[in-house]
Every structure is written in C-alpha cells, then in structure tokens.
Amino acid sequence: MQSAAAPLSERQRRRQRQPPLLRRIEPLTTIIGIAVKLDYAMTGPAPVLMQIGAAEVDGQRIAGESLVATPEVSHAVPGHDGIGQRLWLEPETQFTVSYAATVAVDRTPAPLAALTADSLTALPGEVLEYLFPSRYCPVDTMHAAAVDMFGHLTGGAAVEAVRGWITTHLAYVPGASHGGTTALDTFHAREGVCRDYAHLLIALVRSLGIPARMVSAYSPDVDPQDFHALAQVWLAGDWHLVDATGMADPATTAIIGVGRDAADIAFLTIFGAATLNAQVVEVALVG
Amino acid sequence: MQSAAAPLSERQRRRQRQPPLLRRIEPLTTIIGIAVKLDYAMTGPAPVLMQIGAAEVDGQRIAGESLVATPEVSHAVPGHDGIGQRLWLEPETQFTVSYAATVAVDRTPAPLAALTADSLTALPGEVLEYLFPSRYCPVDTMHAAAVDMFGHLTGGAAVEAVRGWITTHLAYVPGASHGGTTALDTFHAREGVCRDYAHLLIALVRSLGIPARMVSAYSPDVDPQDFHALAQVWLAGDWHLVDATGMADPATTAIIGVGRDAADIAFLTIFGAATLNAQVVEVALVG
Amino acid sequence: MQSAAAPLSERQRRRQRQPPLLRRIEPLTTIIGIAVKLDYAMTGPAPVLMQIGAAEVDGQRIAGESLVATPEVSHAVPGHDGIGQRLWLEPETQFTVSYAATVAVDRTPAPLAALTADSLTALPGEVLEYLFPSRYCPVDTMHAAAVDMFGHLTGGAAVEAVRGWITTHLAYVPGASHGGTTALDTFHAREGVCRDYAHLLIALVRSLGIPARMVSAYSPDVDPQDFHALAQVWLAGDWHLVDATGMADPATTAIIGVGRDAADIAFLTIFGAATLNAQVVEVALVG
Amino acid sequence: MQSAAAPLSERQRRRQRQPPLLRRIEPLTTIIGIAVKLDYAMTGPAPVLMQIGAAEVDGQRIAGESLVATPEVSHAVPGHDGIGQRLWLEPETQFTVSYAATVAVDRTPAPLAALTADSLTALPGEVLEYLFPSRYCPVDTMHAAAVDMFGHLTGGAAVEAVRGWITTHLAYVPGASHGGTTALDTFHAREGVCRDYAHLLIALVRSLGIPARMVSAYSPDVDPQDFHALAQVWLAGDWHLVDATGMADPATTAIIGVGRDAADIAFLTIFGAATLNAQVVEVALVG
User: Which is it for the CA torsion A22, A23, A26, A32, positive or negative?
Assistant: First the structure.
C-alpha cells in the first residue's frame, strides 16, 4: 500500500507468509475498483491518522494498490485487531491523498438466520471486548429494551430480527446525525446514516449476548458513494458482515478496518483543525 | 492461578519464558498480601466472567497464589491487551470464590511532571485506542474543555495538573455515582468513587493527546478496602500509574487488568441476575 | 392549610369565592385520610421549599387539615399553575413537619379511550407548555419513536395504548432509578418507580401532540405508601388523571400539585444539605 | 399586533389599562425598527405556533406594528408568563408572514454587579420555576460545578462572573450546536450560538440560587441578524437582561417572549414537517 516500513502484528505476519499466488481469482470472485481522493487544508501543522486502505483479510485479496500522499506517509501501524493499517501524515498546511485499489472479493454470505451463537464461555478472549459497552454503543443502557424486544430469539435469527427491525423503523437521512450521536439517540430518532444504522445494530446485538463490531468498508452500491460503515456479528465461530442499511452486499464489499464503534474506524482523525477542500470516493464493480 | 489450560497471548508467552528465579525480591521490593472472598446467589444459571487475579506484568511478580471457585473455573482467556486473565464460571444457583495471593511489587514511580509525551506518530499501534473516546470517557465531548483548562501544558506536567485539579475539586463520596456515570457526569458532580476519579483523569488526559487507560488493582491503603481502579498514562515510551484519589501508591499497587475504561476491567460480569451474599477484599503490606 | 397569610393567585381567589357549604359530600364521594411526618437534620441553615398539602381543585375538597412545622412556615406561595401551595421553612439545624388532612374526593374517571384530543389550535394558552420538552421528558428526542409506535392512534385511545404499553413493558423496581433519570432512560431501562412511569407516559403522550403534566398525589393503594406521582393528560377540554403504575385510582386520589415533570412537583426542595431522620406517609380510605 | 380577538391574561389586561398616551417617548428612548419575513413550504397540512411580535412589557412600547400572514392567524394565546403572544397558523401547503414593528425602548441597564440577590423565601411564587432544572438547563447535574466555580460570589457579582467566564471561554460558532444541545454540552464544547450562550448562563446562575429565564428578542447589533436569545436574571426584585454573547445591549433590545429555556421561546413550532424557502430578520436603530 505504501513504501514506508511499518511494524506488523503477528497476525499480519502470518497472513503475509501465505504465498499470494496460491489464491487465484475463482469463478465466483468479484473484482472491485476503488478510487479515493482527499484534499484538506490545515489550520496549522498537526498529525493526521488515516485508515483508508482495503485490508488483507479472509474473503478479500488486494490485487493491486497505490497510495500517493503529500506530504508522504511518515509511519504506519496496524489497525484495530491487527486488521488493516493506520497511516500517519504530518502535514503543515495541506494534505492530499490519492488511493486506488483493485480488490478481489470471494465471500459467500452465510444464511445468517440459520447460524447459532457461540456459548459465551467458548468465545475467544479477543472477541470479548465486542460484548461490552462502547462510546457509541451503550449496551449497558440499551440492554433491557433489547432483551424485551428480541430476547425470545437467539443466534442468527436474533440478528436477522434486529436487522429487519432497523430496516423497517429507520429512515436513511443524510445529515440527521452528528459526531456525538449514539445508538440510543438513533433508536429514538428513527433516522440516521450508515454509521447510525451500524451502531444501533451493534448495540442491540451485543445486548443479546452476541459479539458485534463496526466495520469500515468500500461497497459499490452505497448511495451516495462514500466511505461506508456496517457491522460484523460473531456467530458459529466467525465474523459475518451485516448491513442494516441494505446497501452493502457482503459479496461485493471490501473491508478497510474494524473496531468497537465509530471511535475506532475513522478514516481520518485530525489532531488539530482542518477544512475540507475535496473528497471523492468511487467504488465500482469491475469484474 | 488455576489449573485449567488457558490460551495464552504471545505477550504472555514471552513473559513466561523469563526464568522466574532470576527475579529475586530486591531490597526495595514491597510484598503485598491479597485475600478475596466472593459469594453470590444466582437468579438462574448464567455465565460469569471474572478478572480478579494479580497480573504478571513489569514491576510486580506473583510470589504465591491460589484460587478456589465453586463451581470450578470452566475456562480462562487473556485479559484486555493480554494483561491478566479472565475466568469463566458457569454457576447454576450460586458461586463462591476464594482468591489469595502474595505479590512482590518493585516499581519505582517516575517523577511524572518531568516526563515528556511521545509524539503521536511515535506511539505503538496498540496504544492508539487509548487516545479514542470510550463508553465512560467521552473524549469527543470533553476535548474542548480539557484543552481550555490544561492545553497550555504538555506531557507529565499536564498529567500532574489534571491529577491535582481532580484531587482539589472532587470529593470522594461512596454511593455518589452509578453504573452509567461517565467522566463528563463526574466532572459536573464534583464527587465520585475511585472509578469516577479514574474516568475523569483518563478522559481529560486523552483529550490532551496523551494515551490513558484504566487499571484495576489491589492496593493496601484503599479505604474502605475494595477492588480499586486507577489510571495509567503513556509518557516517555511507557505506561505510568496515576491515582487521582491519592489512595494507591504505585510502589505498593498490584495490577489486575487494564482496559479503555470500566467497561473492560469489571472484576465480575454476570450475564444474568445475581444477588450479593458476601464480598470481602483484604489487602495488606506484608513485607 | 396554615395560618400564615399567603399570596393567592387569581384562580385561587375565584375558588375561594365559592361558598364551601354548597359542596356537600355526595353519596359517591370517597373520604381519604392523610398523615405525613417529616423529620430532617440540616447540615447548616438553609431554606426548604415544601409542597405536601392536598390542593383545592375540582374533584376534591379539603374537609379538614392541619400542618404543624418546626420551625414554623415562614411564607407560602402558590404552586405551579396556581394549584396547591409551596411553603418555605427556614430551619437552622433541623425541621419536623406533621401534616394531617381529610379529603373528600368526588371524581368520576372518564373512560379515557373514548375521549377525543382537542385540536392544538384550540388549546388554552396555559396548557401549551405541557406539549413542550422538559427536563425529564425530552419530547424532542423521543418524538420520532413515539410516533412510530403510537402514531396510528389519536386522543384517548392513544393515551390508553401508551399506558398499556408501559404497564406491560416496565417493571416496578424501587431503587432502579436516580434523581437524574429521564423518560428516555426509563424507556430503555424498562424499570423504575412511580416518577419514572409518569415521566415516560408524559413524554410519549406529549410526543403525540396531547398535553400531559406531572401530578403529585396521595392515594391509598400505593405500595409501599409514599408520596405518589402520576400524570394528567388533556383530552376533550379537561385534565384527566392517568397512572401507568396502576396503583392510584383517580376516584381515590388526592392531588397535591402539578408541573411539567419531577422538577416542579418535589415535595421537598432543600437549598442546602440535610439528612433524613424519619419520613412517614400514611394514606387510607376512611369513608 | 393583529385583528383576531385573543384571550388576554390578567397581567396583560392590567397593562392595557395604562393609558398609552401617558408614556411619551422620553429623550433617552431608543427607537428600533423590526422587519421579519418568513416563507415556508409545508410537507402537509399542520398547525404552526409562532411567537415573533415584540411584547408589551416594562421598558419597551410598541409604537406601531403590522402582521400579515397567509393563511391568516387563526387564533392567539398569551405567551409564557403572559408575556407576548403566540399565534396559530393552519397552513395547508405553505405559509408566509410579514411582520413589521417600531418599538420604543426605554430601559436603563442596571449595574448588575451592584445588585443583591433576593432571599429565596422572598421570591414571588411565579418566579420559582426559574430556579428549577429545565430541558436545556439541567441545573441538577450542573449545580456542583457551578458552586465550585462561582459559589464564593453572590447576587449580581456572581452573575457578572458567570457572564465574564462565558465570554472568555466560549467561541461564537454558527452551526456548532444542534436542537438537542444543552447547557452541559455547551459547557464542554466551549462554543455555540446565542441560544447556547443563554442556556449556559441560565444553568449556571440558577445553580447559584438566582432565578434566570430565557428571552427571545430583537436587537440591532446581532450579527448575523436573526432572532436573538439572551437571558434575564432576577436580582433586587426584578428581571434584568444579560447577554453573554455581548451582542445585545439591553438599552436597544426588544423582548418577544420569555420561558424556561429554548423549549418555551421558539419563534416557530411546526407540528409537522416543512421546508424553509426564505427567512429574513432585519433590526435597526431608527432613532
């Protein structure tokens, strides 16, 4: 993704050891083209943390990728849970980034409703944090309502019920939320954008004892095209993508990063002040 | 700590490779005795996640330890960031736990005010999450006030100023807060318990661009004796304990676990309902 | 209610002009006996605002009443909307209050479900505030969910649906809430006490365009016996009592005061610090 | 203000009895010209509640006034506390309003810092509600911080200190807040618009035991020109205007209405959905 030597997690090292040529593109594979341009003017020098590259994770493979940043990326660190990379820029007055990638996605969505939840005691240790309350998913305060509404269901059937409820009861309204909007706010507002749909699904699913995390991603049918956010739920021993907005088909979605909620998956975190000059995200099915 | 084979993180494995006999108890070392008894009646069968054992981390060594649980611990997983262990119990009607440990603490508190903050871009990847907002430390909403109050300071001097402000402006009032109390609530209430002091310090310090995390611990001067919570701040390339309540001296404090905030370091998480029969925590300097 | 000359509102004056002997106790009238004892120790001298007397309002008549306070009541002012009275005490170190009353209640509860809502434009000016958001009834944030849940209903049928939903989905749990708990919190917690039940009903009903206010009251079937809180909704040109807890029958309930929410109907507001020595509320049907 | 016969409060009636010709424009009087145009398209028929007319209150006199609305005003009711008027419109598809007024203001701002606070027990009954928490001024949660910051001061000196603190610590940033922003949010965000400045001042001042209410007003130096919000504090037996933004000089400010907070003084409350076509507010010193 870029030339700077970045420290890699053990998990990433294991992934890199896989001879990439072994994973040919299979007949079912979808090819996604991604192009991103960012152009921001800084109010003053400040570090900027960016996570915009498609990740090397199961179900998707980076076929080709380029990232040109001005100023250059000064340092890279692994993303949350070792998925994807976060890049540091240290702009003085402005920064521009061009990212392009071709990603082969080979992900057969499981029929969620048929999957069983793992018993809590069988969960891997690193999955437990995805049961707990987080900044925008206050499971502690939403638990009782979630159990009242969906507690008669378990596993994938519960997740499907939550997803269906959100799809039915929320309106997708750009501008309806703001940076501090939580899942609880969205539950009441009955409207939001992808971030809010994902937060609400995650908070309700966690409340039912099923781990759920936030995913940033590229997907061609997101309208208007932009960085997208959806959820992953842990069922039957693995993570499964779920998008309550219905816009991102797992079979054509390229994951960027994961985290507890929007606090962890920001595509840009500017430790200072900046103004947006231009931002373009284009995602298309190319094969 | 107990016999069940637990999956160990890479970090824990590295720690275990250190021949324990090499680390004799040095003249400066403090010996702490810990005794905990828990007795809870369950409303129905439910899994219980417990993190109460002193951790094997730099600055402290478990000299002796025993844990007897009824029912027996069914499974163990690493704690957050691979520090300490979380134990699963699966009680039907009741559970009782007796934990006893002798811990040698050899930790020379650094003069915080003299330490410099690492530049953000130099932070290890796994430390970044401790800059972000979390459930009880809503950095996003507290950032502007923190910068207004302490933004003229940097590094350890800023941490010391935050700690001093909290010590001066908060009253330690058992019962003043509840499970949903956030750092922002505490900022206004001007009172709380150890959990609240730690949350407020963490939220303010993170707002200043310095990583901070929550620590559960045993410490002999905590009054009344109980599980204790304090903070660690990342300065000059390492974590340093800070207790805004002033009750826990780092030199005599045994760390149990760490996390973003209280959501991660609960000593007990009961995935169901239970009532407390008895709970005793005793911590004493024994050498 | 007490001898100190209190300023009376125009509305109160009008009520006083009614020759009291004309309103005999009718066959259907219920007689309620009320006895209250308060005993508080002050941390220091501070004014105390108290509203505990049954009010002279339609549907109830004070047959007999005595109030003995130490120190004596220093001043009285009308309660919110001119209903009932607020009494000032100025204790130095302690205050004790004994209140006893016999109240004749002659209130035939209307069949709520059959009542129609007034058009908004027909509402009296002083009723409008009961449509707006208040401290514990944040109608602005709950509006969309309320409309989604109950928006297909109107008037008394909508109120009945809200009341039924609360009765079904909430558990009455003493200690479940605290002083800052809002209707939104209660919506999610699915538990609370009378104050919380009333707040939730008021917030949902206001969200549907029907005025609703909070009422403090005495009622004999409240268990455990205490000051009680319920709601009044404005339908068909008048206020109607509704109690989502089901404990207070309008036909046997004596109103103390009204207001937007708990902020307005506190039985005691201590502008300083005090500790409770004793507090007893006894309410009984005596005829 | 308009021809429809509106019910008048007792207070308004008393005001009307004053022979208007007795109050000539004195040498010190300021003449303010006000012109407002509103043009909204309705999503569907819905009642609209509007409060935009300058009020007949002490310190200002309506020299001339016209209001033309399409559709016509269907009904008028007194504003909160009997100050000003709320007008109902019942538009089907659109509404337009033109309001023009000439207001003579004769208000000598008192030197606030020199005024003493009334003892709580001496407050008129109808002023008490302005001590209590309200939707956007959660005095209950802000009380301790306010006392910690300003509790060493009393009366006008305390109000002046609060006003000065807000002026120094907040930045006036259009768009920084939203409809749900409370005084507590603003305290932390350290930025806002007139509504937020007023809420924060009111919440802090009430926390100190001094009644404070919200005022909607026209003032010529508000930049950009718009409906303005400021506060009134109760000192030395009367209400006094205070504007923490510094934009509205009491001597040139025409009061529209008052209330507990923004919930009570909305210039437009649309009980349905509408889109803004045009809105113009012009206020100028004309004499």
Answer: negative
| Chain B neighbours, 3+ Cβ pairs < 8 A | A, D
Cβ pair B142:D169 closer than 8 A: no
B171-172 and B191-192 beta bridge pairing: parallel
Residues 6+ apart with CB under 8 A from D58: none
Are B47 and A128 an interchain contact pair (Cβ–Cβ within 8 Å)? no
Q: What secondary structure does DSSP assign to B205-246, as a single string? A: HHHTT--EEEEEEE-TT-SS-S-EEEEEEEETTEEEEE-TTS
Given an 8 Å threshold on Cβ–Cβ distance, is D141 in contact with B185?
A: yes
Collect all residues of chain A within an 8 Å Cβ-Cβ radius of residue B177: none
What phi, psi does B200 have (nearest 5°)?
-65, -45
- In chain B, which residues have their Cβ closer than 8 Å to the Cβ of D190? 144-145, 148
3-class SS of residue D120:
helix
Residue A190 Ramachandran class (φ > 0 left, ψ -120 to 50 alpha, else beta): left
Q: Check if the beta carbon of residue A79 is closer than 8 Å to that of residue A51.
A: yes
Q: Does D185 touch chain B (CB under 8 A)?
A: yes
> Which residues, 6 or more positions from A92, have their beta carbon under 8 angstroms from its beta carbon?
A42, A45, A71
- Please give the torsion angle defined by the CA atoms of residues A22, A25, A26 and A31, in that order, rounded to the nearest 10 degrees: 150
Question: What number of residues does chain B have?
Answer: 287
What's the complex ipTM? 0.90
Q: What pTM was computed for the model?
A: 0.90
User: Which candidate from D141, D144, D169 shows the least CB-CB separation from B148?
Assistant: D169
For B198-245, the pLDDT digits (tens) are 999 999 999 999 999 999 999 999 999 999 999 999 999 999 999 999
CB-CB under 8 Å, D135 with C133: yes
Residues A147-180 have pLDDT tens digits of 999 999 999 999 999 999 999 999 999 999 999 9
Q: Does A148 sit within 8 Å of C191, measured CB to CB?
A: no
Chain D residues lying within 8 Å of B187, measured CB to CB: 145, 188
- Indicate if the pLDDT at residue A270 is higher than 50: yes
Euclidean distance between CA atoms A269 and A267, whole angstroms: 7
Answer whether A191 sits within 8 Å of C145, measured CB to CB: no
pLDDT tens profile B237-279: 999 999 999 999 999 999 999 999 999 999 999 999 999 999 9
- Report CB contact under 8 Å: D187, B145: yes
A241 phi, psi to nearest 5 deg: -70, 140
Residues of B in contact with A74 (CB under 8 A): 121
Please name the chains neighbouring D, where neighbouring means 3+ C-beta pairs under 8 angstroms.
B, C
d(CA B15, CA B9): 10
Cis peptide before C45 (omega within 30 of 0): no
- Residue B157, classed as helix, strand or coil, is helix
- C-alpha span between B176 and B79 (Å, rounded): 29
- Report the distance separating Cα C243 and Cα C249, nearest Å: 8
**Tokens 């409350």 found at:** D269
| Contact present, D265 and D51 (Cβ < 8 Å) | yes
Of the partner residues A74, A77, A132, the one whose CB lies closest to the CB of residue B263: A132
Distance (Å) of CA C146 to CA A173, A188, C142, C207: 18, 8, 6, 6
Q: Please state the φ and ψ torsions of residue B123, each to the nearest 5 degrees.
A: -70, 140
Helices A194-207 + A155-169 axis angle, to 10: 140
d(CA B83, CA B123): 19
> For B146, which residue in chain D has the nearest alpha carbon?
D188
Q: Is D77 helix (H, G, I), strand (E, B) or coil?
A: strand
Which one of A9, A180, A264 has the shortest CB-CB distance to B129? A264
Q: Which amino acid is it at C37?
A: K
Name the DSSP class of B27.
Answer: T
